[in-house]
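R.M. (postdoc): so does anyone remember the format we settled on? I'll just put the structure tokens first.
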């Protein structure tokens, strides 16, 4: 008697193809598992019951890292002829639920990555409606718990080369139709000669770097629904739209 709880050979083969495709999009990965469940009769008709993706220590291109990524779908429509040849080709986009965990170290790794530094070499802070060009000399983010985010930065004023240091605490939230982490409210600001306006401007600029699209796999779009800061970690719930599985 066969054990229906265990994936069949066809399911295992497709799962391995999906794992290789996802791994090929990553610079590093500690663990990646894909489990495709499909009834053999439905599979020849182009229907997969579900797809579950679970990854740990996934480093995207340009040094952007996720501690954990989980994606779970319902029924997925695929090309049965491609499946017979060991390929996964979706005939319709599939909806899924995703869970992402970013650690404090992941966030700081992203903020200091060359990829984001190139996108963000310098910017302007508005002071009394006058833009002042600045560059970030150093920046660190931590998650103390209680739904808060803490940021410390050393800023260099380009015109005078003065270094200004700032510390602030804020409550993170979701903006831009679920694409970007932003903030609801700044709770505390410390820094000589730095106003609340400058702190707000700085935090907005920094949060632009945490655009979720920088963390997406090819063919899989994420739309943030819920954000939960915990001590040392940021838990994200998202809706995922899978246009196509990454190909190796």
């Amino acid at each position: 008697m066969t054990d229906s709880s265990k994936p069949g050979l066809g399911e295992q083969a497709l799962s391995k193809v999906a794992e290789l495709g996802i791994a090929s999009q990553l610079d590093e990965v500690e663990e990646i598992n894909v489990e495709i469940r499909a009834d053999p009769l439905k599979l020849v008709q182009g229907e997969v019951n579900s797809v579950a993706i679970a990854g740990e220590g996934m480093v995207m291109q340009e040094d952007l890292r996720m501690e954990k990524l989980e994606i779970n779908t319902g029924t997925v429509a695929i090309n049965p002829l491609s499946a017979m040849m060991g390929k996964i080709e979706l005939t319709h986009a599939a909806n899924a639920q995703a869970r992402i965990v970013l650690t404090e170290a992941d966030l700081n790794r992203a903020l200091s990555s060359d990829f984001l530094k190139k996108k963000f070499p310098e910017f302007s802070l508005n002071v009394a409606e006058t833009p002042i060009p600045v560059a970030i000399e150093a920046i660190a983010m931590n998650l103390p718990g209680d739904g808060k985010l803490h940021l410390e930065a050393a800023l260099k004023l380009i015109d005078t080369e003065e270094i200004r240091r700032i510390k602030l605490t804020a409550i993170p939230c979701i903006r831009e139709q679920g694409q970007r982490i932003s903030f609801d409210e700044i709770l505390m600001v410390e820094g000589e000669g730095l106003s609340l306006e400058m702190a707000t401007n700085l935090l907005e600029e920094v949060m632009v770097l945490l655009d979720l699209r920088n963390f997406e796999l090819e063919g899989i779009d994420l739309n943030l629904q819920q954000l939960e800061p915990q001590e040392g970690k940021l838990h994200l719930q998202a809706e995922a739209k899978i246009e196509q599985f990454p190909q190796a």
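R.M.: ...and that's the designed sequence above, right after the tokens. Also worth knowing: The chain is about 20% helix and 50% strand. The CA atoms of residues 6 and 83 lie 19 Å apart.
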